[in-house]
Automatic annotation (TrEMBL):
Protein name: superoxide dismutase
PROSITE patterns attached to this UniProt entry: GLOBIN
Provenance organism: Sinocyclocheilus rhinocerous
Reactions accelerated catalytically: Fe(III)-heme b-[protein] + nitric oxide + H2O = Fe(II)-heme b-[protein] + nitrite + 2 H(+); H2O2 + AH2 = A + 2 H2O; Fe(II)-heme b-[protein] + nitric oxide + O2 = Fe(III)-heme b-[protein] + nitrate; 2 superoxide + 2 H(+) = H2O2 + O2
Parts of the chain that traverse the membrane: none
């Protein structure tokens, strides 16, 4: 069973930076597959940015984090997000695959769920925040740079898909 202390080994073997973007497959895979990690990310995301809940029918009116925790929709989405990011990490050597995975995510969120793209940027910030808090000394400046680049790449591909489908409000409204 993973916990926050064990999902990231003390000596992260991030000697093989891929395209200068990510840490290393082993570390990030363990991390991204960790339920605890994805769960902390999404709880904080929805507690600190409650307007993001508007897209989720099951918990849009919930305020109590303990109640939100039980939502199967929240859990399922957290898992999907981490799986998608993990697929990106595993395919950093293959830009076409990365583009196709994130293109589909972008198009679904623009056309089907109509999510304001700014929420992707906010979510990236929360992911980076929790990584820094939970992994302290393992989150070295080098690792931080890698994750920041990964998050920026994600945002770039996803918003590229938004633009492709004609979503023009990329720098919109307040949260
Ligand atoms: C990197 C960030 C994200 C990734 C990789 C991601 C990934 C996914 C995936 C794979 C699905 C299922 C796709 C489908 O139905 O075709 C999904 C569904 C969904 N996503 Fe995201 N997502 C992300 C961020 C967000 C954000 C920021 C929001 C809103 C604030 C959001 C709202 C939704 C909603 C409402 C659904 C449908 C949920 C349901 O039907 O239960 N997603 N997401």
């Amino acid at each position: 069973m993973y916990n926050r202390k064990t999902i990231m080994p003390m000596e992260c073997p991030h000697k093989t930076l891929k395209h200068n973007v990510c840490v290393c497959n082993t570390t990030s895979k363990l991390l991204l597959k960790s339920f605890l990690f994805s769960f902390s990310v999404f709880l904080r995301f929805f507690v600190n940015f409650p307007s993001a809940k508007q897209y989720f029918s099951q918990f849009q009116d919930m305020e109590d984090p303990e109640e939100m925790e039980k939502s199967s929709q929240l859990r399922k989405h957290a898992r999907r997000v981490m799986n998608a990011i993990n697929t990106v990490v595993e395919n950093l050597h293959d830009p076409e695959k990365v583009s196709s995975v994130l293109g589909l995510v972008g198009k679904a969120h623009a056309l089907k769920y109509k999510v304001e793209p700014m929420y992707f940027k906010i979510l990236s910030g929360v992911i980076l925040e929790i990584l820094e808090e939970d992994f302290g000394e393992c989150f070295t400046p080098e690792v931080q740079t890698s994750w920041t680049k990964l998050m920026a790449a994600l945002y770039w591909y996803i918003t590229g898909a938004y633009t492709e489908v004609g979503w023009l409000k990329l720098s919109s409204s307040a949260v």
